[in-house]
């Protein structure tokens, strides 16, 4: 938990924000969001229907931002691929390496080997946003680290969401609707908080929202079956994590 808090605090660094923003095609994203809004306005006029235009534009902007992030910016890594043999490499070991940033936390390195030519390749699981802005690859934790940083760099309030059943995503504060909006860059989803329990069938336990100024237990907003959720959240575990948050 301390590592996640320190990681989120780095997103307030102005130099890091500028580095993240330098890659974002803001004009293109804004134009595409505006085009989607105009198309919606045209349909609404034909149906003589009122629109919440500010809310819609905000939603379309987040969709377009995630779409760019997934398709054009960050790469997903399941396994390493041998560039010479064009086959998936085999995971042969994991090891830990001490990070160079401050505060420094060890990070995991997955070591892969090609079964045909013997080439060895490393996949570092960085907790350092500055390093990830260079590598632009990873799985859900790396994706969410950089997406959350980009949202902060764009001037939005953002929270890093950590699901104890093995997933991460981002929440973005809407100044239009005065609420937190669920954004999952890995899945390309905006405002679909029940997808994990209802769509994926996950048995959720604890979900923490980590911002630069607080930590909140937000598990309940991601569940529609609170009775089953309560049974899984054993009282002693709730006390353990609550005391950790209060520290």
TrEMBL record:
One of its GO terms (molecular function) is metal ion binding. PANTHER family: PEPTIDE N-GLYCANASE PNGASE -RELATED, PEPTIDE-N(4)-(N-ACETYL-BETA-GLUCOSAMINYL)ASPARAGINE AMIDASE. Residues 30-57 form a coiled coil. This is Putative n-glycanase. GO terms for cellular component: cytosol; nucleus. Keywords: Coiled coil, Metal-binding, Zinc. It comes from the Eukaryota. InterPro entries: Papain-like_cys_pep_sf (IPR038765), PNGase (IPR050883), Transglutaminase-like (IPR002931). Belongs to the transglutaminase-like superfamily. PNGase family. Pfam families: Transglut_core (PF01841). One of its GO terms (biological process) is glycoprotein catabolic process. Residues 132-187 form the Transglutaminase-like domain.
